Amino acid sequence: MLKRLLSALVCLVLLSGLRAADATAFHAMLDHYYEDYLALFPLEAAINGDNDPRYEAVWPNDISAEYRAKVVAMCDQYLAALAKVDRATMSETDRLSYDTLKWSLELRREGTKQIFALIPVNQFSSAHLTFAQMASGASVHPFNTAQDFRNFLSRARGFGVWVDTAIANMREGMAKGVTQPRVLMERVQQQLEPLMADDAAANILFAPLKKLPAGLSAADRDALAKEYSAGVRTIMLPAFARLHAFIRDEYLAKCRETAGIGVLPGGKEAYAYAVRNLTTTNLSPEEIHQIGLKEVARVRAEMDKVQAQVGFKGTLAEFLAFVASDPKFTPFKTEEEILNVYRTIEGRIMAAVPKFFRHVPKSKFEVRATEKFRAATASAEYIAGTADGSRPGIFYVPIPEVAKFWTPRMEDLFLHEAIPGHHFQISLTMESTTLPKFRRYDANNAYVEGWALYTESLGRELGLYTDPYQYLGMLFGDMHRAIRLVVDTGLHAKGWTREQALAYGAENEGGKPEDQKQVAEIERYMAWPGQALGYKAGQLKIRELRARAEKQLGAKFDLPAFHDQILMEGALPLAVLDAHVQAWIDGSGK
Fold first, then answer.
1. Tens of pLDDT along 68-106?
2. 87-112 as b/e, with b when 16 or more CB fall inside 10 Å?
3. Is 554 left (phi over 0), alpha (psi -120 to 50) or beta?
4. 513 DSSP assignment
5. CA angle, 186 as apex, 182 and 191 as ends, to 5°?
6. Is 244 within 8 Å of 197 (Cβ atoms)?
7. Are 535 and 450 in contact (CB under 8 A)?
8. CA dihedral sign, ordered 38, 42, 44, 50
9. Is there a contact between 362 and 431 (Cβ–Cβ < 8 Å)?
10. Are 241 and 196 within 8 A, CB to CB?
11. Stated pTM of the model
12. Rounded to whole angstroms, how far apart are CA atoms 283 and 130?
């Protein structure tokens, strides 16, 4: 009661300050918002390297009705606070904070009304995968002290509650005709099986036992090992087993054969929301579909040029099939060989970076192979480090089979996932001491992925893509994201089947519809409607802004200064970013 009373008093003080357009009060409100945000999203604190004990032992039950009500209340509270602000009297940075927070609150509130809580489990982005990664001891939860181990056991108990809520929600979904595609849940079954095994040598959940704190006495280490092992066996394994049994015994029989969310009750509304949220635009699914078709045609024309350059005789499909299958493009014998090539690419890029960027992250960076338990269904990804340098940014490379690892995509993937893509953007934002915390840590998909995809096009300027097949790899990446505009909207708004999507992808990327990578990608779009749209939405916007700045500024255009405008204000919604860059252009780019 006292905590709620104090919070109410703080808000009253802040609101009175906001009526006077007091910048200090506004900044205090933003700080207060960030603390309220972390209370609801405690895993974000771990991702951000915040080891505050208020958050470190918590797993949020973020699919419960009670939780969603708390999110709505928080959004209403801060939207009301923003309504008291005289935006016109603010500084440029404060206006960016106002616009970004307002966008975030409105979309987050709207998201609580959608059907996603009834389909909380999938094979690509789901709490059971996040939990397993954290439980491995190699992710964002620290396992440095005995308290860290006990905090994770507390998280595990919260995860068990989440699992039970997920089962109850999915039962409600079954009754309402809102279920996942059967094929996705079959993949989940495969993921859960190794996580249920009482095998300390093979199950990743036992991995932290290999890094018990060295500072403990032998007796305390033994006691902690017993306590943690018991927690794995009595809390974690049963939670995964309950989810597995429910899916096997009840859910699979009710799962649907259709692929897109649009066919479900409430599905069209959910997809429309996802498109707005994940692209930060008001484009309709049909408009995005048409943009995708145009981009596919443009990239195909570029591929034709590469085919002519290397002198390959035959159709484009035959050329793509050659690149996809010729043994010279799969030369590796060990994982370490693959990782070392990426480290070499890093060195080449860093040598050229000063010509393009005024600011370089302080955060350390590593390349790692994706954990085996999820490598078969994972994509290349970046996991952010911490602003204090205690955890490096990590580029995870999925290597299900070394002998099949393909070389042409290596340079553009590194640009996207690592440097200067996600590592630069996320690290520079986190390290900023001038941005309010919510802008340092809360991002949007279109900006983050759009920046990363934009950086792929910098390859030639940075001294990469000297091998035409690596440039072709960039085109494969660009084609891949263009296809996403067509396929994601096709699946979720136009009623495409999984097989239609697989065929379209194979037709334009090469390979066969049944290829493992093609299947994993299409099933990713099925699992997370709209997420794949943000890449192109953001890339095309940043390209548009650069072209506009080059045209309007002429000889005054400075590329490092332009990149500062994109990077140094954090992850802005695209409309907010557009206005910000235009203001910089109007100020002669100085």
1. 999 999 999 999 999 999 999 999 999 999 999 999 999
2. eeebeebbbbbbbbbbbbbebbbebb
3. left
4. T
5. 145
6. no
7. yes
8. positive
9. yes
10. yes
11. 0.87
12. 31
